Amino acid sequence: MSNLAKSRKFFSGIVPVLAFFALWEIGANYVPNGLISRPSRVFVAMAREFAGGELFRQTGISLSRILLGFSVAAVGGIVFGFALGTFFRRMERFFLPFFQVCEKLNPFAIIPVFMILFGVGTLEKAAVVFWASFWPVLFNTQFAAKAVDPQLMLAARSMGANRAELFAGVILPYTMPGIFTGLKLAVRVAFFMIIASEVIGASTGLGWFYVRSSALYKLDLMYGSILYITLLSILANFIFERLEKHFMSWKEDAFS
Amino acid sequence: MSGADRIAAGGVTAHENNRPPKIEIHGIERIFLKKNETNGAQESFVALKDVNLKVESGEFVTVVGPSGCGKSTLLFLLSGLASPSRGEILINGDKVTGPALNCGIVLQGYALFPWRSVRKNIEFGLELKSVPKKERKEISDYYINLVDLTGFENHYPYQLSGGMQQRVAIARVLAYDPDVLLMDEPFAAVDAQTRETMQDELLNIWEKTQKTIVLVTHNIEEAIGLADRVAVMSRNPGTIRDVVPVNLPRPRRIGGVRNTPDFQILSHHIWELLQDKGSRGGSGAQSAAVPRVDIGEHIRDDAVI
Question: ipTM score here?
Answer without folding.
Answer: 0.80
